[in-house]
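User: Last request for today: this protein with PRP, please.
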Amino acid sequence: MDMLNVALPKGRLGEKVYDMFEKAGFECPSIKEENRKLTFENAELGIRYFWVKPSDVAIYVERGAADIGVAGKDILLEYKPDVYELLDLDIGKCRVAVAAPADFRDVPGRALKVATKFANIAKAHYDSIGREIDIIHLNGSIELAPILKLSDVIVDIVETGRTLKENNLEVIEDIVPISARLIANKASSKFKGEIIGKISRGLASQISL
Ligand code: PRP
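Assistant: Here's the final one, the structure of the complex with PRP:
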């Protein structure tokens, strides 16, 4: 039987996601074993899970290495992978926001220096308000940039707001709310539509309205 390949985001969110799959009837007990294996399958159910870096899930799904997966809306907005977005799982909730040091004052007429991992989201946001920016693309610890005067502001994920607070930064503008989404490869949706539909309905039934 052809296995259904599922890309799960490694980390705390991924564990929550797996629990939802389990409750939907697609359990794979070996995934809970403490080891460094990256793939786990339940041959009886015809499902194989694998852990990937959260920002890589959409790549696996777009290229068909995974039939379905769970990715943050931030990644979908930033990279616009050619996949179907099937369901908002209503977990992993946070937002993309602009943040700056408390004493920040925008100087109109000068390009605003914006440090971010989300260059496309940032560009789209500032385009929409007609503000010229200079993007500084970083891969992590974005909060450091304004502290060291590498940038004026940052565009980053804010969840509890703790990282900002502890670094004397504050949100000056919300850009977009984020949550985890179930995504599917386009061809798989056709050829494995039955099982994908079953999973999608099983997950949807756990979302509190
Ligand atoms: C994200 C984000 C912030 C932090 C926000 O970082 O980039 O740094 O979480 O969470 P909070 O509002 O609850 O403090 P992540 O852990 O993904 O690491 P990185 O950006 O440094 O790679």
